[in-house]
Amino acid sequence: MANRPTQDEPSSQPHGRTIDLSACLGLYCESATTRKCHFLRKMPNIKVFAGSSHVELAQKVVDRLGIHLGRVVLKKFSNQETCVEVGESVRGEDVYIIQSGCGEVNDNLMELLIMINACKIASASRVTAVIPCFPYAIAPFNCGRLALSFQLFTCPVAGADHIITMDLHASQIQGFFDIPVDNLYAEPAVLKWVRENIPEWRTSIIVSPDAGV
Hints:
The chain has helices at 32-42, 55-65, 105-121, 154-157, 187-197; strands spanning 46-50, 72-76, 82-86, 94-98, 126-131, 162-166, 181-184. By secondary structure, it is α/β, with parallel strands linked by helices. It has one domain: Rossmann fold. It has a five-stranded parallel sheet, sandwiched between helices. Strands 2-3 form a two-stranded antiparallel sheet. Helix 4 links the parallel strand 5 and strand 6. Residues 4-19 and 26-30 have low confidence and may be disordered. One of its GO terms (cellular component) is cytoplasm.
């Protein structure tokens, strides 16, 4: 078996691959069978649902876990109001809803809130909102008469029991919630991918502007 590339010996694999952000959530085991057996022993009553913002990411997460993506119907009425229908029982289950704040931010946020409410009404034992890109979080704290927009939905999102997000623009945002907020960092996964896939990584520069700029 070939040795894994070290920091001094980066891999020469092709560059046309994408960074798997699901690895940032710690969802990694050696094989699909091992993943499923190991994970289901620790968390047997889990359901993962995807909002419409990033179905591909949610699918990668459940593939790593060795479980199926939960069924949910997301649609709009003729007046553009959002409608959510959970397509399977979540009674007594530990529910994770993956919905990013990029793209159609307002629609995605409203969809997330309705999904949280739908799962709560359906007697889910616990609901975790996984929000890789937290919406309305880039406003500075030191500007007078500037709205802190994220405060408007800290209470509605807190209908969930737990929030998982990534690389918050300001760590102080965690203090506005009355529930646990895990702020994960993508940097370790990004650096690992760069070292393994870009031979000239030592002389490369990574530029990452804020989402929405």
